[in-house]
Structure formats: structure tokens, C-alpha cells
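Our preliminary data section would be incomplete without showing what the modeling component actually yields. Below, a chain of 202 amino acids is followed by its predicted structure, encoded as C-alpha cells that our downstream tools consume directly.
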Amino acid sequence: MKASVKFIISIAVIVLSACSTMKKPQDTLVSSEKPVLTESAVVPEDNQNPPMTLTKNGKILNLVRFMDGAVCKNDLQGAKGVFLIYANPQDIERIKKEQGTQIFSRFETKIQNFSEAILQQAINTTNLSEDPFSLGEDVAKQKMVEQLTQNFRSAAIEPVNEFEKETSLTIEISAYRPSFEFFQKGCEATLNESENTSASYN
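Predicted structure:
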């Protein structure tokens, strides 16, 4: 099965934060300001916000960036949505002191590369076919979101663990459930149309 990937990442994550100091909250990962969704991100009707922090292995991770991804499973099926990057600010500061800020550009590339692979794997293992027994479109979408979220979480475990071992930077990547849209009748065409529509506003 031919799979094509169109993955747009706004991930100045660590590079932008690497040049900041803890004395300037507006420029750091510990900012009191809420992150702003990218223009291409989908804002849910109930205005639900993602958690600003989460705990992993006893460390507090802050939400540092949104990633906007779109993937085709085949010619007809695919999905797009927003993924959230969390990182530990103390790790950032320690790495800056030990290795310098230039190391973060390499981290950025690594995160982008394995995030593309995670999203593609999650989509490939998610059933995106229409359910004739579904109680409605909303119910069917919710089932796909549940499945994709679980598949994304499973696919992310190994690459995230490997990244952490190599870099000593604690991160987490999670799917932002309310943002997902699914395609079942033409993936490539829909993504190309969305791209052209977005470009017309620039």
C-alpha cells in the first residue's frame, strides 16, 4: 500500500527556547502565557484547551509547541490534526550549560524526523474506513480519534525513549484529540486543496 506523507511542523521548540534564560518568562518554556495555536490548527467549538503541563517520570513538562501534521494512508484515506510537544525546562537549561545552544538545532531535526514516522505509523494502523453500523458521524469520528490516539501513543514510545537516552532531554509528544479531521474519499486531493486555500490567505 502506497503511503504518502505531508507533514508540516512548526517546531522552533527547543531552538527558540534554547536562546532564552529563566529570567525572562515570556521567552522561556515556563512562560505564563498560553501557547497560541498555529493558523492551520483546528480550534474546537467548545474552546477546550490542552493541558499546559504533564508529569513524566517525576518531572514536570511544559507545553512548548504545537505540531500540525497531515498524512495519507492511501489515495482515499488519511487524517490531519495537531500534536503537542512537552519538554522539561530544567533539562533545557542544563543542556544549554553543558553543551551550548547549538545542540538544539540537531534536536529539532531529530524530533521532526521521528514525529513524521510516528504519525505515519499511527495512521497506517488506524481503521479509517466508513462504519456502516455507526450511530452517526460524530460517533464514528470519536472511534477513529480514540484508535488513532492509542496508535500514536504506542508508536511514540520507542523513538521518544531513544531520543531521551541520547540527548538527556525529557520530552513527550501527544495527540490533540479535538483537532483531528479524517479523509475517506480522497486524501491527496483534499490535502492539496487545503494547502492552496491556506496559501491564498498569505
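Confidence is low (pLDDT under 50) at residues 1-47, 197-202. Strands lie at 4-8, 53-56, 59-72, 78-87, 171-183. Preliminary results of this kind motivate Aim 1 of the renewal.
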